[in-house]
Design a protein that fits this description.
Belongs to the Maf family. The chain has about 450 residues and is α+β, with helices and mostly antiparallel strands. It folds into two domains: about 200 residues, Maf protein (Alpha-Beta Complex), CATH 3.90.950; about 170 residues, Nucleoside Triphosphate Pyrophosphohydrolase. Helices cover about 30% and strands about 25% of the residues. The strands form three sheets. Strands 3, 4, 12, 13, 14, 15, 16, 17 and 18 form a nine-stranded mixed β-sheet that branches. Strand 16 and strand 17 form a beta hairpin. The longest helix is centred in the N-terminal third of the chain and has 28 residues. The radius of gyration is 24 Å and the shape is elongated.
Length: about 450
């Protein structure tokens, strides 16, 4: 059994380190306010931030990053565990469109899914942070060319210590393991002109210590003593020790070969996705018996979020996404959603995707049913949800997959250019929404 790994970082270097080691991680950016996390930790210890050593800082931030992703995923699991209503399953390739193949209470439906809610182990969440300690001072990312150039000049011919903190969390059990790696980095002799040219590449601006071992900066490093992989943001030996310390075998995380094999059926979209988009486990196309290509190797899912009229208590509007032009059927309107990741159930995938795309926090909604269009090797799950009493969802485009988000009155949905499948299903969805009892 392959155990999914979630990397709480958007660092290409950390992701590439894992991929080359046979592990393609799912990327979930932590969005931790790093200065605030350090200030809080220093205050809790009753010391000034200045007195927190680099080794302690990287441990604090690695834990904060992994913990933030853990908290977000636990909120998804909690919302799924509270699911009510009914799951309706249609198998149109067997029974025809518009038919109902089966019905099941949502609590039984989610209990029978393979996902985070019912996992005995995993997914594993790994958070990392790196700092370069030079002459007793911790140096993070320089951010500006001027600061990077000043640092690199001062480090010429000198030695510093690169610390990398690691925090590994088993989401299923809550168990946590922490460790830090270190390496002594000695810089070579170089000219000011060399450094000006290097800084002009932009490479040293957003990396700890203003240098990288795997990039153009590697030519200016004379030697490394200690763990070289930690210098690249993630120490594989350290991480393997943490994994095995939780009683998990390292080979159980290997999924890169399987992922490549699953990708063989992938075909390019009509328009290319933005260059910064990262391939995630579960991304890819399914060549379906219906004659179409469907996105999501594990299927796909989205959230149809409804809002009640404050006076009548009846459902009055739904939140829709105007899809980015580069996406499948770009320019149409549908529900926020996407491919289900490895290790997720359809409801979990829908809740996570709707937060990533539209800022729909699982803490603010109640799942009240679902509709599954099952094509056999692929299915799309529409999760019906309502704003929780006393909560209000403020939609926001958190990524580049939307042109806009809008609350649309029920009687105006059909006037929009709808995604094909959503438009076909909307009359049934509308009847289902109208049937929801008003809040008493």
């Amino acid at each position: 059994m392959t155990i999914p790994l979630i990397l709480a970082s958007q660092s290409p270097s950390r992701r590439d380190r894992l991929v080359r080691a046979g592990i393609r991680p799912t990327i979930r950016v932590s969005q931790v306010d790093e200065p605030a996390a350090l200030q809080t930790a220093a205050a809790e210890q009753g010391v000034s931030l200045h007195f927190l050593p680099a080794r302690e800082r990287v441990a604090i931030l690695a834990g904060a990053k992994a913990g933030a992703v853990q908290e977000r995923l636990l909120a998804v699991i909690d919302a799924e565990s509270r699911a009510a209503g009914e799951q309706v399953v249609s198998r149109p390739l067997e029974d025809g469109y518009g038919s109902v193949h089966s019905r099941l209470p949502m609590d039984r439906a989610v209990a029978g899914e393979q996902g985070m809610l019912n996992a005995g182990v995993g997914p594993l969440v790994i958070g990392c942070d790196s700092l370069f300690e030079f002459q007793g001072e911790p140096l993070g990312k320089p951010h500006t060319p001027e600061r990077a150039l000043e640092r690199l000049k001062s480090m010429r011919g000198e030695t510093g210590t690169l610390w990398t903190g690691h925090c590994l969390i088993d989401l299923a059990t809550g168990r946590r393991a922490n460790a830090s790696s270190r390496a002594q980095v000695t810089f070579g002799d170089y000219t000011d002109a060399d450094m000006a040219a290097y800084v002009a590449t932009g490479e040293p601006l957003e990396v700890a210590g203003s240098f990288t071992l795997e990039g153009q900066g590697s030519a200016f490093i004379r030697s490394i003593e200690g763990d070289p992989s930690g210098v690249m943001g993630l120490s594989l030996p350290t991480m393997r020790s943490l994994v095995e310390g939780l009683g998990i075998k390292w080979p159980d995380l290997w999924n890169e070969r399987e992922d490549r094999e699953r990708q063989q059926a992938v075909r390019p979209q009509a328009s290319a996705a933005p260059a910064g988009n990262v391939h995630q486990p579960g991304d890819g196309w399914i060549d379906c018996a219906c004659g179409r290509l469907h996105w999501g190797l594990n299927g796909a899912a989205g959230v149809l979020l409804a809002r009640r009229d404050p006076d009548s208590g009846l459902v009055s509007e739904v939140l829709l996404q105007h899809r980015a032009t580069w996406s499948a059927e770009g320019g149409t309107w549908g529900v926020p959603g996407g491919a289900i990741a490895d290790g997720e159930s359809p409801v979990e995938g829908a809740l996570r995707e709707s937060h990533e795309e539209a800022n729909i926090s699982p803490e603010d909604i109640d799942v009240v049913g679902s509709y599954v269009e099952d094509h056999g090797p692929w299915a799309y799950t529409t999760v019906f949800a309502m704003e929780r009493e006393g909560h209000r969802v403020e939609p926001r485009m958190n990524d580049d997959e939307s042109l806009e988000l809008a609350w649309v009155p029920l009687d105006q949905v059909a006037d929009r250019k709808l995604l094909g499948a959503f438009g076909r299903d909307w009359p049934a969805f509308l009847n289902r929404l109208k049937a929801l009892s008003p809040v008493k």
